[in-house]
Write a structure and sequence with these properties.
Blueprint: H1 3-29, H2 34-56, H3 62-65, H4 68-84
């Protein structure tokens, strides 16, 4: 990966974490359990990029190419809800 691609990838990771955290806060306001928070965080964080990739014909999807993104977004959502409830 070239340096410019690496920087864009890192910015994308920050954006995914921010989306997962936003979804976790919304799920917390609706009193969802931990599973619902993690699922909503993953779907929100990865859904927009997946739709974009499908419409542009970029395959494989980013979360299929890097499955660790599921753990990153789910973990960010769970950590956010744990810290928000303290």
């Amino acid at each position: 990966m070239e340096p410019a691609e690496s920087v864009l990838f890192i910015f994308g990771l920050f954006a995914m974490v921010a989306e997962a955290m936003t979804a976790a806060l919304a799920a917390g306001r609706r009193k969802m359990d931990w599973f619902g928070v993690a699922m909503l965080g993953c779907i929100t964080a990865l859904g927009g990029g997946s739709l974009r990739d499908v419409l542009l014909g970029h395959y494989p999807l980013l979360w299929v190419k890097y499955p660790s993104l599921l753990f990153l977004t789910g973990g960010a959502a769970l950590l956010t809800i744990a810290l928000a409830r303290v």
